[in-house]
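In the current project phase, the collection of sequences with tokenised folds has grown. A representative record is quoted in full directly below:
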Amino acid sequence: MAKRQSLKELQERLAQRLTAAKTEAVTATWLAVEAGGHRYLLPLVQSGEIFPWSVLQRVPYTKPWYAGVASLRGGLHGVIDLARLVETTLHAHAPSVNDRVTSESRLVSLHTALGVNAVIWIDRLLGLRNPAMFSAIGANPQGAPSYFTRSLVDVQGQSWQELDLQVLVTEPEFLAIAA
């Protein structure tokens, strides 16, 4: 009898955990990343696979934010330096490339539905975020590009910038990599 009771309790606990896991997966909306000392939110539905840092082949005569080409899973991907791209748009300053490559550097691919064979270089992953983790909507920076959808403030008071990758890949500036 005790075995039946404990088996039933185990099944109930597993059912509760499965329900909780499904709920968490649905509520996670963004991949939280850091690039150039700033925090960004990449929509999960527009993001693809996350790769460890890879050796890049530099491409001459390209804009400073186009870091080069990387071979990932047998395919060539353009590497977009997110910090430099934002720096160019907002006329800000990002650390040099050599100062930023660390063991935490990652390449986040754009979802195949976006139709661009590219990855975004980030300095580190900060996990998954959902809307409940944010307490306020802040103001976008002056002169913010169209792919900056909104600025959010989390419960710790940290500012996050949400990016729309679908808008980014249609920007004429993004599509014209020649310097």
